[in-house]
Structure formats: C-alpha cells, structure tokens
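Fill-in record for CNNM transmembrane domain-containing protein.
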Amino acid sequence: VGLLLVKRLIVLNPAEEKPLKDLILRRPIVISPEHSCYSILNLFQEGRSHFALVTPQKEAVAACWRGNADIDPSKVQILGIVTIEDVLEELIMEEIVDESDSPHAADTYMDTVRLRGLQRATTKLKGLLTKVRQLPEFLSAASGCSDLVTVACDPHGFYMALAVSVGLVVVAGIMAGLTMGLLSLDQLNLEILQTTGSATEQTYARRLLPVVRQHHLLLVTLLFFNSIANEALPVFLARIVPEAYAVVISVSCVLFFGEIIPAAIFTGKAQLPIAAALVPVVRVLTFVAFPLAWPVAKALDCVLGDDHDVSRYKRNQLKALVALHHRKSLNQLKKSDTSHASVPLLGKKTSTSYEATTHPPHPTDAQPVDSDDESTSAHLHNDEVAIIHGAMDMSTKTVQMIMTPFDKVFMLDVEEKLCDTVMVRILASGYSRIPVYKGHRTNVVTNYRYIFLLVN
C-alpha cells in the first residue's frame, strides 16, 4: 500500500500515463486496533506519515516487509485506515456527554455543611423546649435566691458579668462560624485561586492554605474555645438572673447568635474575605491551645489518618463539571440579556474592514485577551466544551473507534497509469492522500519503492 498526495499531480503530465509503481513510495505506519488516539497522535507528530493502516496482524505485516514478500490476504486482515484528520476531528467535534445527572460531591459540599449546622441548631432547640417545660420548677426554686448581683447592690459586678456574658456569646459565635467557614474551604479551590485568581484572591488563598492544611489541629482548637464559651455562659448569667432564666437566655443566645447567624455569615458570599481576615486570630488561638490541642490532633491523625491532601477530580468528574458549568453559563446568559444570543461561539466578532498599513502586522503587536472579560472568563462556549471533552477522551479511545473501514477506502492499483481518467477519479474522490496497492487491496508493498507516495 502506498500513499498518493493529490496536490503532487499538478507536476505530472497525464499524456505520459506514468504508472504509480515508478514513483518513490515510503513505508506506512501500521497500528493495532487497540492503539489509543493519544498514542497514534504521537506517532503522527514524529513526521513519518499522517496515514496509518489498522490491522490485528501487525507483526505479520512487518515480517512480510522484511522478507520482501507479498501479504497473504488469508492471513492478514486490514480493518481500515486512520489519518491525522480523523484524530483531530475526534478532538474538536466530540459530542458533549451529559454526565451530571447525579450531582458532584464538590457541588453539594456546602449544602451538606449547612444541613449539619441546621441539625445542630434543631437539637439545641429541642433542649430549649425541654428547659421551658421545666421552667416553673426552676422559678419556684430560685424565688428565694438572695445572692444575685444587681445594679443596686453591686453595679460593677453586674455590668462585669453582663459584659462577660455578651463576650462569651460573641466568642461562641466566632468559633462556630470559623469552624464551619474554614473547614468547608476546599484546598483545591484555594490552590486554584492562588494561581489564577485576582491579586486579592491570591492574598486570601496564601493566608488560608497553611491554616486549612492543619485540619485536625484547627478543628480541635476551634471546638475547644467554642465549648469553653458555651459552658461558661450559663455560669455568668446565673450571677445576674435566676438559674431558670439563665438557662433559657443561654440556650437562646447560643442558638441564634452562636450557631445560626454565624453559620449564615461565615459560609455566605463573604466567606473568603472573612476567613482570611481572621487568620491572625486563629493563629493566636492555636498557639494558646497548642499544649492541649496538639496531642488530641495527633491522636486523631493516628486513628482517622492525616490524609487531608487536595482532592483530585477524576476524568469523568472533570467532564461533568465542565458540562455543568457550561449549562449554568447558558442559563445565566438567557436570563441576563437576550442580546447575548448573537455572540459567536468562538469569541467576539471583529471588524472586517481592511485598513492599508505601511508595515505588515507583527506577532509582538498583538494584545492578549483580557482574562477578566465576562465573555472569556465566565462562560464556556460550545466549541470549547467539545474540545475539552475530546481531549479528555484521547487516552481512552482506540483508533478502531475512529478509523475508516478498509472496504470503504478509496485506493489505486500500483500498476495504474496516471492518465486523464485516473486524474479525474482522484480529484473527484476529494481526498488529499490515497492508498496504493499491488495486486489485491490487502497487499502492502514491501519494497521501499512500493510503500507510500508522499506528495506535498
């Protein structure tokens, strides 16, 4: 089999009726059906040829070539051919596969965190209702109490206890908010922001990454101070109000100001700036609680493992993430402005008017596209998604999946003369490279002259 590049026919005279066997031919690339598209692309890039035969009997073909023998069609089966255009077409024309029927773990992580906070708040609310039912007993027991601190008898002690109680509520809220806000941050997302984010986002990511990586130490430290604040609050409230009221006030304050409101703030839109601003506070708390928090954190590392490295997405997960982002971008475009429908898929249209210039354009004169532009950074176009999906499938798809069946390949006999009729057939076929065979279609020419005709 040889290869004929049609554009070389321009230098041939049809009147000479020159046979194909008199032309210089080279060896083709022979691959097995199990070859991946990625590996065959590497072979094409070596420059030997952009055309390959697909056959399960690869070694038999090579043996025939080494022995200058014709290929026996009863022993060798050629399944088809693969060109570099087939591989590139598979890369850029890949259909978007909907793999996002089941939500990705990264998309529902924040919902899980908020649900966990809601469950904790519900549990505390049940405890509050239990205390309210027992309120009459507490009131009767506290009616004869005479050791309460009042403004009249001890204003300094009263305001001190009140200030400490308010401070404990604030501390409990900050600790609960930091627990949910810091531990819900994705290390992979922080590393992405550190690399490709804005200057402000990169600063936030650099501050947060060292803290977030110490997962168990951070968890123990924040829960330690949160527990201290929650347990100490009823003690100080009991000095200025009866114990029954102290319990009700303590549970109510912890529920709303120590759980619900901090969870909503620290996991909201301003999660990253708030968490980055409080990193110095977290470092001070870690230093103070280090003698107690470090042994507990190490014990958790030994029992549960300290594997809190950045999670990596699998190939199918990345494809689903790209497709999901693309669909959400399209929905946002439809809702925001109907004029976006006129925007071309591959970018913005530029003026087609030609202005005469004295000097030709130079590559250094080109200006890069602004990465913060909404049309280039916020949305993925159809062609971009197709190329990303096609590139991810290059290592898993085999050449047998994209090849042209051998019985459908347009071929020429090596004995055929390049006359006007043959020229017309070649041009009518529409191919730029045409296989050439000797005797029968399966026979691959073994001589160096009879392998591939590369005509550029």
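KEY FINDING: The CA atoms of residues 352 and 387 lie 27 Å apart.
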